[in-house]
Amino acid sequence: SQPLSVSPSVELVGAAWTHKRPSRSVLSDAIGPLEATGKIRIVVGHGPVDAVLGSLNDEPSTIRLAEVEAAIAGGAIHYVALGDRHSTTRVGESGRVWYAGTPEPTRFDEVDPGNVLIVEVDGHGHCEVEKVRIAQWQFINHEATLTEADDVAALKHFFTQLEDKPRTGVRLVLSGTLTVRDHAALEDLLESERQSLAALEVMRDRSDLVVRPDDFDFESFGLGGFARSALLELQHL
């Protein structure tokens, strides 16, 4: 696209996708013909960059970082604002190519979402990027090893420290061995926290939490006769 003048000294260059799978790099097409004019040019584009994808960069729409940095070095463009990644990401070594990421987290596995970038650029080689967090939501992964009541209490303390629970999602990975009594306390805790958190999920496929009765649990069964003898025998296996 043709540069759009937004002031006597600043131009915007748009490189938007017009459909989901472009057959070539729209950004490369936009910056390829540009030459230095003395004006500050900000490029706004979308798509993956080969330097970020690594070996997964065979899509024709992939942005080639070398082309972008050559245009920067030649003074044709001065900053490239990219969309596609949800995590704030600096691309390359120039300090002038960035994904701002999403203003709010959208998944548990995002590295650094929830930011905006404040960028200062001039025509004399200066470019300063400041990351500012604005997210109101948070998604937290938490792992806990539980072997006694104190560990359940520690997990409760973790929940207590969370701020703004209605805008917080938590994903737990739990491991260890608990008695029946302590496991019941854990279940009560999780049920209580589900009422206040936006989301609470225990990752069953990654958790390894075993429930094993202790002497107190066995006594609470109130068994007698043959059943008690069988239980005692099983206890010592």
Automatic annotation (TrEMBL):
<dbReference type="InterPro" id="IPR050535">
    <property type="entry name" value="DNA_Repair-Maintenance_Comp"/>
</dbReference>
<dbReference type="InterPro" id="IPR029052">
    <property type="entry name" value="Metallo-depent_PP-like"/>
</dbReference>
<protein>
    <submittedName>
        <fullName>Metallophosphoesterase</fullName>
    </submittedName>
</protein>
